[in-house]
């Protein structure tokens, strides 16, 4: 993801994915949202890896809290709202727009609920909603993996690819997150409810 993100530091309107977004690139709100989403989401991907470490949680609670608050603030104030704006202009038409809009709303909602649960000291529910939130954060990776696989194997029309990966990028992640949450209640994955 870092390799994909770095070229956008040029802020050029023709970098990579932006080449196929020329029809909306003059929309200043969309453009600002795009760059905001791209640059803040890379932090969220990295931050999430630290949040589920028992070692950090038990031995370095300050790191867990600091990174966690940063994740929540960046996601709620920048990444998810920017993703929502982008979703309204998603490639692939209405089906992709519905998929990405749903993704951004769930991403924001799960993260907000996780924050509220932490403040209420309901750490079991906090962890479960953070698992859901991070599963949706990881859609940045899974979307690209699905896109690569589908294009290589099936070679469909590019807009058809967007309609498919708009859903595949996050729905299986969320299903897996629910599976992990259910299994953790039973003591698997080292995430037994505390």
Average pLDDT across residues?
91
Domain count: 1
Rg of Cα set? 17 Å
The structure class reads mainly alpha
Which spans have pLDDT < 50 for at least 5 consecutive residues? none
Distance separating the two termini: 33 Å
Tell how many strands the DSSP assignment holds. 0
SSE string, helices as H and strands as E: HHHHHHHHH
Any idea what the shape is? globular
Largest sheet data? none
- Helical region count? 9
List the helices and strands and how they pair.
Layout: H1 2-5, H2 28-51, H3 54-59, H4 61-87, H5 94-119, H6 123-137, H7 139-154, H8 158-168, H9 171-185
Q: Can you describe this structure?
A:
- The protein has 194 residues and is mainly alpha-helical.
- The protein has one domain (28-190).
- Helix content is 74%, strand content 0%.
- It is built from 9 helices and no strands.
- It has helices at 2-5, 28-51, 54-59, 61-87, 94-119, 123-137, 139-154, 158-168, 171-185.
- Helix 5 packs antiparallel against helix 6 and helix 6 (123-137) packs antiparallel against helix 9.
- The radius of gyration is 17 Å and the shape is globular.
């Amino acid at each position: 993801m870092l390799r994909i993100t770095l070229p956008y530091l040029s802020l050029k309107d023709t970098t990579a994915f932006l080449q196929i977004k020329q029809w909306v690139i003059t929309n200043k709100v969309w453009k600002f949202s795009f760059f905001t989403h791209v640059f803040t989401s890379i932090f969220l991907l990295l931050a999430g890896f630290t949040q589920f470490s028992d070692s950090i949680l038990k031995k370095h609670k300050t790191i867990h809290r600091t990174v966690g608050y940063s994740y929540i603030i960046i996601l709620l104030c920048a990444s998810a709202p920017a993703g929502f704006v982008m979703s309204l202009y998603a490639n692939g038409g209405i089906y992709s727009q519905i998929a990405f809009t749903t993704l951004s709303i769930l991403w924001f909602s799960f993260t907000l609920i996780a924050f509220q649960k932490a403040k209420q000291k309901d750490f079991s529910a906090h962890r479960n909603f953070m698992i859901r939130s991070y599963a949706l954060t990881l859609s940045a990776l899974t979307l690209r993996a699905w896109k690569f696989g589908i294009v290589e194997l099936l070679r469909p029309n590019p807009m058809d690819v967007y309609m498919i990966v708009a859903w595949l990028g996050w729905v299986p992640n969320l299903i897996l997150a629910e599976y992990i949450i259910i299994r953790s209640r039973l003591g698997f994955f080292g995430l037994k409810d505390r």
